Amino acid sequence: MPNRLASELRALAFDVYGTIVDWRGSVLAELSALAARKGLSLGPERFLDEWKGSYRPAMDRVNRGEAPFATVDAIYRARLAELLAGRGIALAAEEVDDLPEAFASLLRRMLARDPAARPTPREAAEALEPLVAAVPDRLV
Predict the structure, then answer these.
(1) Per-residue confidence (pLDDT) for residue 60, from 0 to 100
(2) What is the pTM of this model?
(3) Which of 36, 42, 70, 108 could cysteine-pair with 74, CB 3.0–4.6 Å?
(4) Residue 55: how many CB atoms within 10 A of its CB?
């Protein structure tokens, strides 16, 4: 007897943030590698917490009309620049841009308005392989 639910199911959606996609581990690996290359005392975990914690307050300012709309990329990029400057860390623009870009380009494609422009699950998994490889001993 066929499963009625399966025959009526038209879409299955779920949140992959932190479940399938290990955003935190990938960005921590990038921050740690940057700190090692530059000889910085960055404190990657605390730095990442401060960086990630910037989104909600920034969107609250937008929602109250105190700031113009900004994309998540713009919010994180601005906060990253503030955090680096606050620690006296000077990086080339491309070094700063590489940190959030490690994950952002795939996320933008996955959230494309046009479903045909979104990567297939296989393409998304393949795009995540370099990020996963940067985080040894972690399951993603």
Answers:
(1) 92
(2) 0.54
(3) 70
(4) 13
